[in-house]
Amino acid sequence: MDPLTSNPIILKLEQFARFSAEDKQVLNLAAAEGVRQIGPRGDIMREGDRPQTLNLILSGWACRYKHLEDGRRQIISFCLPGDVCDSHLFLVRQMDHSVGSLTPVTFAQIPRRRIEEIAAKYPRIIQALWWDSLVNAAIQREWIVSLGQRDAMERMAHLLCEIFIRLRAVGLTDGHACDLPLTQAGLADAMGLSVVHVNRTLQELRSTKLIALKGRTLTIPDLRALQDAAQFNPNYLHLDGDGRHLDANE
């Protein structure tokens, strides 16, 4: 596989606009700086930390989350390969949420000076990162709709559609299947349901043949049918080349 195109951040951001070979080289070099690894259930950033770097997920799954004082956790988004944990962190003095690993995670810590250099010389990359921020905000809005209006089955089906399509965009699906390394407790924390309700909902989706789960593998035999069950419209993921007018000519 071409190393200039296999980097998940390139695969993701090129859903917005096609990059030049130089753009890709710059992103690859930035992603190779400060590579870190962390095991499951660790923190990449904690609430209250002063952000110093932009953190890019290269492999593995993480999540943004908030803890209440009594220990209850709300997962507010999932961070998948190619995701920037927060592209606007240089604007804030301290983290107002935490980012933790759900699986072993490899991530790149890109320092402020490097981002400033890229911003000065490669506007297409920075515009694509703005697009990424827009998509993150759109995902949050859709999660709020799920929490407020969708029933448990719609909520679960919607989340699984979203995860599958996001993974497909960075080449991490295999036909109708993808990795799903989430525990039922993790799904419960993301969807505002009890673990018992999550289990019951997954059983319902299985019994109607909308999904199959085997170990850590999710199979969606008919994505359109699952989308219909969830009332899922993928437009909020903005994967249709919003920035095609910015495409590089080379």
From TrEMBL:
SMART domains: HTH_CRP (SM00419)
PROSITE patterns: HTH_CRP_2
Annotated InterPro entries: cNMP-bd_dom, cNMP-bd_dom_sf, Env_Response_Regulators, HTH_CRP, RmlC-like_jellyroll, WH-like_DNA-bd_sf, WH_DNA-bd_sf
Stretches assigned to the HTH crp-type domain: 150-224
Keyword DNA-binding in record: yes
Pfam families named in the record: cNMP_binding (PF00027), HTH_Crp_2 (PF13545)
UniProt protein name: Crp/Fnr family transcriptional regulator
Native species: Muricoccus vinaceus
